[in-house]
Each structure stands twice: as structure tokens, then as C-alpha cells.
Amino acid sequence: MRADPLPDADPNDKFYLGDKHCRNSGQALEFKQMNIFSREAFDKGQDMHTQAAPSQAEFLHKNFKAAKEKLKSQTKDSILRKYGNAAATEGEIPMELLLGQSERQVEYDRAGRIIKGQEVEMLPKSRYDEDVFTNNHTSVWGSWWKDQQLGYKCCKQSVRNSYCTGSAGIEAAESVLDLMKANIENKEASGESVKTVGKKKKMVTWGTDVPEDLELNEEALANALKNEDERKKEEKDERKRKCNVNYSNEATQEEIEAYRVKRVHHEDPMKKFSFFLSLSPS
């Protein structure tokens, strides 16, 4: 069959549309839809055939189209009852709003406040809900401020989602704060006492100045000097040192004084002179 020789031209200006243009118009299109319906119904178990029982097929097809239109209308009515019809109230809206246009550019910040483009000055709106009391609170969030923190004035709590405890919670918080202050004061007092005791018991160790009121036991000092001489003799000959040497980490005042007396003063410019004096006969 011959096709449309001018498919891009306007159909109203065409004299010839082709041999197949009549298949998609008029009763030919309805017959085609009925054949499609009968085939789909037969595949789903319906006993119908267009050529065997054409009257039955046409009657069932009409009933199907009527039921389909009824279902569509019921669905439309239920949607309109639930959500309303904005198109029906379009005539009630003023034309200034329907056709209103503006070239004004508005800029917002992250919190949703207008920072540029607002011609009329308006009172700033708080980002928090105003006059809304939650969690048994009798004041809004932000009605109390302390130590760089916002809170509730009714219970003086700085946690946003906290439950209001009223005056009892305030008294409990103050008692806990007083207890913490008392504990800190006790710790400071005990620390000062420990420091004073430690200062009294502190020994004169290496590198410290000898106090004027230092009292030494002469007998213990003589024994310490003797032990220091023996230790230096043992250091000169490592092979004669014994393995089972009794050693103690705690040094007495006499042992420290003996070490100061016997140690070699490398920075002393008169140490050689004192050595020759010790060799000269008295």
C-alpha cells in the first residue's frame, strides 16, 4: 500500500494522506480496540471471540468501557473530597496575585533570615518557638543565661531537652556546687599541710646549700669519712671489688658531708697547692 508522500506537511492542506490513514480513525479504530480487548480477555480466561461471537464481544467491550469510566469518576471524586480542588477556587484568587511578577532578588542566610532584598523592615523572628513550654517547663528556652550558656529560668538547667525539676532541682544543684567547693577547699588545705611537712623533712641533698642550723653527729661523720676513703680505694682497683657489697640508696647527712669533704674539686685553682702542702713535712 502506498504511504503518505508528504508526511511533514499540514494534514489540512493535504489532498492524499496515504492508503493506511483510515485504519486509525472512525469505526476502524474502535474495531481494532475491541479485537485487542477480546484477545487480552481470552488470555485471562474469559470465553469470548470476535469472529465466533461478535455481538457478545461488542457487548462485553461496552460494559468494560462503562465500568472503566465509572471507576475513573469515583477515583476523581474521592481525591477531590480528600485534597480539594484548587482549580475551582482559582477565580476567587485576585488577579494581582495570579499574574503578579517581580524582579526583586532576595538573599537568605543559613538560618532562613533575609539578608538582602527586603524593602519593608520587619521585626526579626526568633528561630526558636515562642511561648511554647515543653517538658514541664514554665519558661521558654533562653530565659536564663549563665557562664556563656543559655537555659531555662524555671529550673536553671542549660540542657535543651532536659525535664523541668523546679525549685527542688535548683536546690539540689546548689547543694552539689557547695559540696564541690568544700571538697576543693579541703584538698587545698590538705595539700598545704603536706607541703609544710615535706619542707620540714626535706634533707640536704647534692647541689643544695648547707643550712646554718645543720647539726651533724661527729662520730657518724668520722665513720662516714672512713667509709668514703675505703670506697675510693676500691674504685682504684676494680679487680678487688667484692660482688656482695651492701649498698643502700638512702644517704645520711653525715655521708653527704663526707662526700663533700673528700670529693675532688676540679674547678678549684688551689687544689694542687693544697696537695703539695699535704706532702710537706710539718
From TrEMBL:
Localization terms from the record: Nucleus
Matches recorded under Pfam families: Slu7 (PF11708)
Organism, as annotated: Thlaspi arvense
Primary role: Involved in pre-mRNA splicing.
Species classification: Eukaryota, Viridiplantae, Streptophyta, Embryophyta, Tracheophyta
Gene Ontology BP annotations: mRNA splicing, via spliceosome
Region (Disordered), start-end ranges: 226-246
Official protein name in the record: Pre-mRNA-splicing factor SLU7
This protein's GO CC annotations: spliceosomal complex
Signal peptide: none
Keyword entries, A-Z: mRNA processing, mRNA splicing, Nucleus, Spliceosome
Ranges of residues in domain Pre-mRNA-splicing factor SLU7: 1-143
Quaternary data: Associated with the spliceosome.
Compositionally biased region (Basic and acidic residues): 226-240
Principal subcellular localisation of the protein: nucleus
GO molecular function: pre-mRNA 3'-splice site binding
Family stated for the protein in its record: Belongs to the SLU7 family.
